[in-house]
Amino acid sequence: MGELKELSVVKIAARKFVTPLADLAALTSIVDGVLENNPFECTAYQVGTTSHLPVEKSKEIYTARIAYLDADAKTIGSVSIGRPPPPVTPRRSRPSS
To answer: What is the dihedral of CA 32, 33, 34, 37, to 10 degrees?
Structure first.
């Protein structure tokens, strides 16, 4: 996939894609793959009586950043726009066997 660049001490990282994502379906497939396959090998945990899957989606935010470039391909300005996500049915924890 490529290297992630650590932005700060909080759990945020940024990755610049070589090719932009084609559409929301492409982004959704990446997120679903992380949720279903747990490629980061996170562990399940319990808080009180609530069991949690190793990877859960806690919130969803859509933001687009548009960069304005000059003739030399240098950024001369940018704007970010956002919108609330569409309603999504949360995944339920799997019952323990």
So the answer is: 120
Measure the CA dihedral 4/44/92/13, to 10°. -10
Query: DSSP label at 45?
Result: E
Question: In this structure, are residues 53 and 91 in contact, taking their beta carbons and an 8 Å threshold?
Answer: yes
Structure tokens at 26: 């492409």
- pTM of the predicted structure, to 2 decimals: 0.52
For the beta carbon of residue 13, count every other beta carbon within 10 angstroms.
Answer: 11
CA dist., res. 7 & res. 25, Å (int)? 26
pLDDT, tens digit, for every residue of 14-69?
667 788 788 888 888 988 999 999 998 999 999 999 999 999 988 777 777 888 88
